[in-house]
Amino acid sequence: MEIINKIIDIFGLSLIKTKDINITFGAVIALILAFIVTSFVLKLFRRFATRNLPPADKNKFVSIFQFVKYLVYLFVIMFTLNASGIDITVWLTASAAIFIGLGFALQQLFQDLIAGILMILDQSLKVGDIIEIEERVCQVEKISLRSTKAVTRNERVLVIPNHKFMSDILFNWTQNSDIIRESVTVGVAYGSDTELVKKILLECAKNNKSTLDTHEPIVMFEDFGDSSLDFGLYFFVDDGLSIPRVRSELRFEIDKQFRANNISIPFPQRDLHLISKKNIE
């Protein structure tokens, strides 16, 4: 019992003592232990949160975890000072006003950072993905915590704030697979040989070097149009950025083959029936 009382006296020994402050040896020990435990818990959390991420994405969280660690340490220090009898009310009031001002000023930045963290954790977007956002098709080149860099079809760099992926609709063309299905539509004149049209369209797709041989093209008889029989040629590619070029090549070849086989592509027509006034009377 006497040993316990001595230990209590040691921990209650004042290292700094004034009228308003009393920092004891026990408070310092508690602060050191709190730092050690906090550091250990944060390391475990970081390993758990990034266990399934590639090394490149893990490195992006270093600065975030450092910021969180310093913030937690700040709260530990304030709690220890409060337990030591130091009045921190004035500090808290001033800090609250500063943090509120910073929060409003950096609101957009925080949204970007949070969105970037969520994107990397759930792997909803990866480098190399073909995406469509705000009617622009581009390929993701780099993902950082604040923004994402993508390259458009005309080789222009598009810098996208990460909060856009949380608030706007995003089409990820390669989320499930790198293979993309696209189509070309064409209309032929009424009376055309539809089986011949189908055969020509399939041959045009199969002979194109950019379409995939592993996936058979498909021809669909889409509709009986006002002036034409409408067909859709569906083909598969593994490069989303090349789609406009492939479509153009197919249209050139389809036009060439239609001309060679006397299949005409009609233009819109309207029949006007004139009724004379005399006949009406």
TrEMBL record:
The keyword Glycoprotein does not apply. Residues 184-265 form the Mechanosensitive ion channel MscS C-terminal domain. InterPro entries: LSM_dom_sf, MS_channel_C, MscS-like_channel, MscS_beta-dom_sf, MscS_channel_2nd, MscS_channel_C_sf, MscS_channel_TM-2. GO terms for molecular function: mechanosensitive monoatomic ion channel activity. Keywords: Cell membrane, Membrane, Transmembrane, Transmembrane helix. It is found in: Cell membrane. Pfam families: MS_channel_2nd, MS_channel_3rd. It is a multi-pass membrane protein. The keyword NADP does not apply. GO terms for cellular component: plasma membrane. Residues 109-174 form the Mechanosensitive ion channel MscS domain. The chain crosses the membrane at residues 21-41, 61-81, 88-110. Belongs to the MscS (TC 1.A.23) family. This is Mechanosensitive ion channel-like protein. It comes from Flavobacterium lacus.
